[in-house]
Design brief:
six-stranded parallel sheet, two-stranded antiparallel ribbon, alpha/beta, 18% strand, 8 strands, Rossmann fold
């Protein structure tokens, strides 16, 4: 029998993108918004490894613990959207995905032999194991779980892949913009409503 969540307090987990950190601009926008508008919602921006296997392990542990005490909603940007989809399917959650990475293993060859996260200075390789670990996290989306926010001038990812992958999901696709998703703050209330927090 599904666990009752209606009486639990709410928690929002923001999952940042590739080579980013909890200091990402959108993560900080959401933090400021919740402090003003919905201070009762617990807000978590996990810090996790650039390596998919380690990221998966720490995010699994984080969400598993949170679900014991909170009704959890997810927001993920770029590669964080890919991770949020994995977590939504694994833990029966709803997620808003912002310019999400779809099949991110297909772009691993864009990166140099040694990659360094500019925030954490962790150095790593997008090698065969890295790609295999990403593929192991891929989950077919359940349409009712997702809100897709996408802008067509995303210079990093092909927005059309996201629109196709999340077909049947609620979608907001804007002309123009960029990978950072310009005007993200316009949709924070909408995201909270969609996640039912």
């Amino acid at each position: 029998m599904p666990e009752a969540t209606s009486n639990l307090p709410s928690a929002l987990v923001y999952i940042h993108g590739f080579l980013s950190s909890p200091k990402s601009f959108k993560a900080q926008q959401f933090e400021a918004y919740l402090a003003r508008k919905r201070p009762e919602i617990r807000y978590i921006i996990p810090s996790f490894s650039n390596l998919p296997s380690e990221a998966r392990q720490s995010l699994d542990a984080e969400i598993s613990e949170l679900k014991k005490q909170y009704k959890v909603g997810l927001v993920g940007s770029s590669l964080g959207g890919f991770y949020a989809s994995y977590l939504a399917e694994t833990f029966d959650l709803k997620a808003a995905v912002v310019n999400p990475a779809v099949q991110p293993y297909d772009v691993a060859d864009r990166y140099p032999d040694i990659i360094e996260n500019p925030y954490t200075h962790q150095r790593f390789r997008a090698d065969e194991q890295f790609i295999a670990d990403l593929k192991a996290m891929e989950r077919q989306p359940t349409p009712s779980r997702y809100l897709l926010l996408s802008q067509t001038e995303d210079e990093t990812l092909d927005y059309r892949k996201g629109v196709k992958w999340y077909e049947g999901c609620e979608q907001i696709v804007e002309q123009g913009g960029d990978h950072a998703f310009q005007g993200f703050e316009r949709y924070l209330t909408k995201i909270i409503q969609f996640l039912d927090l």
